[in-house]
Amino acid sequence: MMSRQKTGRPPRLSSDTIAAAAETIIDTDGIEALSMRRLARALGSSPTAVYRHVRGKDELLLLLLDRAARELRKGPLPRDPRKRIFGLFQIVYDGLAMRPWVVGVLVKGDLIAPSFLWFIEEIVAAFVAAGLSPQRAGAAYLVAWRYTVGHLIVRYETGQNGAKLKHTPGVLRQLSSIDTQQFPILAELTGFWPAARKRDTYREDLAALIDGLLARG
Amino acid sequence: MMSRQKTGRPPRLSSDTIAAAAETIIDTDGIEALSMRRLARALGSSPTAVYRHVRGKDELLLLLLDRAARELRKGPLPRDPRKRIFGLFQIVYDGLAMRPWVVGVLVKGDLIAPSFLWFIEEIVAAFVAAGLSPQRAGAAYLVAWRYTVGHLIVRYETGQNGAKLKHTPGVLRQLSSIDTQQFPILAELTGFWPAARKRDTYREDLAALIDGLLARG
DNA sequence: ACCTGAACACCGTTCAAGT
DNA sequence: ACCTGAACACCGTTCAAGT
Predict the structure, then answer these.
(1) With a 7 Å cutoff on the CB, does A197 touch strand C?
(2) A63 found inside a domain
(3) Could B108 and A165 be called an inter-chain contact, meaning their C-beta atoms sit closer than 8 Å?
(4) Disulfide check for A49: which of A25, A45, A149, B132 has CB 3.0–4.6 Å away?
């Protein structure tokens, strides 16, 4: 048998180099700056060459999602179910807070990186260990996940990464510059909103949610 | 004094007709189909004419946000603080569930339609009436709002309106078609996830969250 | 005063052709 | 086998010119 000869042009691009280039674009200028054409420019190739390695922008994003999921590493976790739940969500929250654009991809099309499955399994198991039925535990996981998504998205969009709006019509105002005359309760909270935006209350608010979920049994 | 004469061409477009046309595009083909050029086509005008009435796409979206906010109408509400909180969030949830794209606009740039302020005031007041300090009440409102955002976004994106992904790389799978061999707890929940997606659990899950928040005091 | 046309600087994607 | 060029059907936005 003859040894297999390599034929044709040697590849210059690979899905790994493509994904890496995409990640530096995202890290530099945000997810909205990632385009197939700009990616190609960064790789020094034609836009169309990228399509040999990735079927489209969709697939590229999911590839990036999978790479992000692989970086979530499970450290040592508390044995106590309640504390374990917090620890698990904290891992995901911290991982996603670093790459908040992932949330947008993750949320589409009920897709799941298998790299995420151990997390769901562990969470649901911890809820069961805390006394919920499997069904209730699954439901509890979904609620907490939705809360996490909401927190990450609001945090991302109102943060410095958030898309700034250039034109705001006269009808709309910033929450900070509101006429609180007719709103007695909100008037007492001037200065509270900017402060609330600074502190990250994910963990303590998650505690309230989880305790509510465990209490309903 | 001479009576003011109208001068120049009579306007054919107005921000009202523009907003209305934009809304029918969104209702027909979704928010991602809304472009200045398509809007102009629908109005029978040149793309550039729209810019006489609206400073850009940003401003158009915020205009639509304000129009949506105006449609949220406060009906009669329970006097009991806890029930009142549920009622208020239900109004917002129902209103936004009909126009889920609003969430994306709302979440950007901590903007607030004054038409939304009565809602925030009422919510915070109800939390205070339920025994929280104004600060705690403000924080509680923020958590519940984030939960609502998460619920609406996940619901929108995984619903039939959700952007379908054409290409999925081999590494990724649908949650429904998972090898549950190595995940004993998840294996027990086959069939649970699709069912969970069908039922809208917003209200009952909000109850768990609110009770958790009230319990922490 | 209001609207148009042409132009600039972009998109994602396909397909025939080149090396 | 891999990559390029040209092309198609789009974007948001600006600015000089027309009615």
Answers:
(1) no
(2) no
(3) yes
(4) A45
pTM recorded for the entire structure:
0.91
Of A212, A33, A103, A161, give the one whose Cα is nearest residue B153: A103
Write the CATH number for B100: 1.10.357.10
For residues A182 and A134, state if they share a domain: yes
A48 and A78 part of one domain:
no
- Do B138 and B208 sit in the same domain of this protein? yes
Spatial contact of B141 and B124, defined as CB atoms under 8 Å apart: yes
Residue A1 included in any domain: no
Supply the range of the domain harboring residue B126.
Answer: 73-216
Tell me the chain A residues in contact with residue B192 when contact means C-beta distances shorter than 8 Å: 134-135, 138
Q: Is the CB of A47 under 7 A from strand D?
A: yes
Q: Token pair for residue A79? A: 């044995």
Measured from the Cβ of residue B134, the count of other Cβ atoms closer than 10 Å reads 17
For B125-180, write each residue's pLDDT tens digit. Answer: 999 999 999 999 999 999 999 999 999 988 888 765 656 677 877 666 555 566 66
Q: If we measure between CA atoms, which residue out of B46, B172, B186, B94 comes closest to residue A105?
A: B172
CATH number, domain with residue B42: 1.10.10.60
> Can you tell me the distance from the alpha carbon of B175 to that of B173, in angstroms, rounded to the nearest whole number?
6
